[in-house]
Specification:
alpha/beta; Carbamate kinase; Aminopeptidase; eight-stranded mixed beta sheet; seven-stranded mixed beta sheet; 16 helices; 21 strands
Amino acid sequence: MEPSFATVTSNSVFGADCFSKASRQRESSFALLYAGITIEKISAFVLLSGVDSGTTFLSLLLMPQHSLDPELSGFIHNLRAALPYLEEFHQQTFVIQLSGDLLEIHNSRIIEDLALLQQVGVRIVLVHGAETQISKLLAAEGHDYQTEDGVLVAEKKHLALIEQAIASANWKLLSKLRSCGKQLQPVTGHFLSAEKKNLAGDFASHCTGNVCGVELETLRQAIADSKLVILPPFSLGEKGRLWILDPNQLAFEVATRLRAKKLIVLDTTALPHFAKNDSSEMTTDRVQQWLDKNPDLPQTQRLQLSSLTEACVRGVERCHLLDGRVEGALLAELLTPKGAGVMITNSSYKRTRPARLSDLQSILEILNSPVQHAAVVLRSETYIEQQIENYLVFCVDEDVVGCCEIINFPEGSAAEIASLAVDKAYRNQGIGSELIQAATEKTRSGACKLTFALSTASSHVFTQCGFRAISPEELPEEKRKNYDFQESIVYGRKIN
């Protein structure tokens, strides 16, 4: 990962190692309503975390750190880490596609996690499949079924059994959600219209359909009324005819027409293995290139990735593919910077920006970590606060995971890139290079003729950004007078 300019302490965990380090923008006495989330809603986290119910939520937050045992301390830490995400997702619409297989897994807590997200203010539209239920019922009656391009072909002679299987899955899902709490309001119904799907195969008579319309106003009203909307994979068409729908196409149409913030697919298959150098965070172009290079990918997964990619192109901000069998995968994907699945986006969600005062604690934690590069000079909180306009930060979402300082010298002839540090969990991802390039561009905009940095060891990250080792004699006189260069390598870059 990124070269060792600085590291941070290992991340705490929430539940089953769910949460990684996130933004420390809130101090211990922060206001819960900053995120637009009520104490009643956020207390759902307490119920699922195993914290003693006799301990009040506010006492957990406001109690001095030294008075908490490790379990409670870890819980508080991770609750604070989750708040920026909850703030961002509050009252946002997520379309979540749930594989029918997940409804059959005993002791799966995925339904509880869905209910939790709804209760803390995420607006969920839940599309469920019924592939397992359909195949079992048809097999029990001695019938086989066919697919085309990964989509079930609903033959007319099997329609009654297929409808029964979907209705059974729908009822099971509705019952499980209702058991999660009286405040949860799951509803199901016909919010769609459908038409016959044109199939390439020679199927004499089939009832496989496509979504051709969505009752957007009715659907939006149900969402606004805090209903958790459940959409089964069938719908009526002209003359009241029933059409069986592909859950992938159904979720895609609903997400794009609603302009949902996220489209999430929860399945029971292993996640695709991208190239060694690829992360699980992919742009639409990279996913398409990968699909082109992997023609033997199972049709079901190809269809999922293609639908998610096209949804991003059509305006859904981010799309996710998760293995729903993994405990806590949904919460980890949504509420931690690392995630737990494949995320697809049509634009970069990582960026370098000028630091703000609200970034102060995050910068301090990165710079003041117990293990850090000797070239990173310790800075006090007062110093950083006074110089905050000279800092750049690298963000994943709004999580600060790297920083650097630009020190301008008199007459603007030279500038130093100092305090370059990257969170240990984010190294070897090019973040140091991004910060150096951004700092260089900022110095280039002025009258600066030399940008330089100091390191106690050879640093490839600077040479990769166009810097070279230079003599200390080339530095501004003020720097030469106030610094001991005996253990430092000086890297410099002339600015044209």
